[in-house]
Amino acid sequence: MKKLLHEYRHFLSYPRDMRVLLITNLVYGLVMPVIEMFIGAYVMRKSDDVKMVVIYQLAVYTGIPFTFLVNGWLLQFVSVKRLYSVGMLLSGVSMVVMMSLNELSLVGLGVAGLLMGMSFGLYWSNRDYLALSSTSDDNRNYYYGLETFFATNIGIVVPFAVGAFIGWYGGEVTGQVSRAYQVVTAVVFVITIAASVIVHRGQFKNPPRTQFLYFRFHWIWNRMQLLAILKGLAQGYIVTAPAMLIMTHVGKEGSLGTILSVGSVLSAILLYILGRTTKPKHRIYLFAVGLSLFALGALANGILFNKLGVLLFMVLLVLGRPLADIAYFTIQLLVIDTVAVIEKRNQYAYIFVQEFGFYIGRFTGCGLFILLATQVSNTFALRFALLIVAVLQLLSVFVAKRILKGCADTEQAGEATPA
Q1: Integer CA distances (angstroms), 231 to 226, 309, 363, 365, 409, in order
Q2: Model pLDDT, residue 418
């Protein structure tokens, strides 16, 4: 208890806005596993076609960068807290639209996907800006470590609970899985309302009303865009591949929840310790380890392609993804701090344009999957597309090292003094 009290007091030592943002993300994080995993499983169950899952995901990804652009204009007039709230609420609306479809058509999937993409666009653009403005480079390892600690613990409980509920209520009680998904959607909507209320307790300020649309950037930021493209390659698979693999090899949402919980306890404890103790100089090592674990999981899936392969992939993904994310996002914010000073630009300009790097990567990755599924087979795509993307992602380590060296060199030369 003394240790827990000590950690709580340490948490209270950070700025209030940072703490409010962390609590908001904790509450909204309760719905993220549902959005990421069980929507893919729902589409898979209703259509029995892995290509439909990827098409839905492409619609989501198409809505995100467009909404980043719209959000940049809206920030000139609307509170960042309100826009952040709308983004969270819109994710619940998108799930309602999805569950109201009697049959999944391309048009229906497209509308639901675009709505979810718009919610993600509003959510992530404002969340990234608030994280940037509420933290400094010295406390970002702790911020992302604690945030990921929350997310990982939620990733233990929520997938298991939702999967068990869908199996019980949709099987034993009503015999209608769709009815169980509708109940889950209602709970998601209530949670998004609660998160929207909490974020308004912060004293967050909007970015300055200046230009945020540019086409030429410093070379360090161009390298950061390359890093975003490489990260985007895997993002589509991280969201959709687990659901498709598990529904293919196991076939039940209850099993989906159970498998997602394996390895998460160790991961949660490890991530908190790393966020609490590591320094900015350790980020490249976290990045390398995280991407290597992801590649090993993809290799296990490619070689075995059975229940054991899926289990190994999911355990290594649960361990590796948070490590890579802690490193990536702290590097991203450091680069924004550095380049914004050099180029004397609105920080939101970099948050906005970064999303197009993600989109290029996501579109390329999903396009590769659809190409392999169409030209070869669904099995081949599920087995090897993930491995191809994982190997390409390892190049990110070398790009990240060059970026960090560039930031250090510019700071030493007096060109920029990051916050």
Answers
A1: 9, 23, 12, 10, 25
A2: 44
Prediction pTM value = 0.77
The set of residues, in sequence order, having a beta carbon less than 8 Å from that of 320 and lying 6+ positions away, is 289, 290, 291, 292, 293, 294, 296, 297
**Model pLDDT, residue 419:** 42
With tokens 């076609």, the residue in question is: 49
- The number of angstroms, rounded, from the C-alpha of 295 to the middle of its chain's C-alpha atoms is 18
Q: Which domains does the chain have, with CATH numbers?
A: 15-412 (1.20.1250.20)
Report CA dihedral (316, 357, 230, 237) to the nearest 10 degrees. Answer: 40
Which residue matches tokens 């069980």? 38
Residue 222: what pLDDT? 94
Mean pLDDT (10-residue bins), the chain, 419 residues: 83 90 89 71 69 78 88 91 89 75 74 84 90 89 85 76 79 73 82 89 87 88 94 74 64 53 66 80 91 91 82 80 87 92 90 90 82 80 83 92 91 60
Q: Check: CB of residue 73 under 8 Å from CB of residue 211.
A: no
Joined tokens for residue 281? 């100089």
Report the alpha-carbon distance of residue 255 to residue 381 in Å, rounded.
22
3-state SS string for the chain: CHHHHHHHHHHHCCCHHHHHHHHHHHHHCCCHHHHHHHHHHHHHHHHCCHHHHHHHHHHHHHHHHHHHHHHHHHCCCCCHHHHHHHHHHHHHHHHHHHHCCCCCCHHHHHHHHHHHHHHHHHHHHHHHHHHHHHCCCCCHHHHHHHHHHHHHHHHHHHHHHHHHHHHHHHHHHCCCHHHHHHHHHHHHHHHHHHHHHHHCCCCCCCCCCCCCCCCCCCHHHHHHHHHHHHHHHHHHHHHHHHHHHHHHHCCCHHHHHHHHHCCHHHHHHHHHHHHHHCCHHHHHHHHHHHHHHHHHHHHHHHHHCCHHHHHHHHHHHHHHHHHHHHHHHHHHHHHHHHHHHHHCCCCHHHHHHHHHHHHHHHHHHHHHHHHHHHHCCHHHHHHHHHHHHHHHHCCHHHHHHHHHHHHHHHHHCCCCCCC
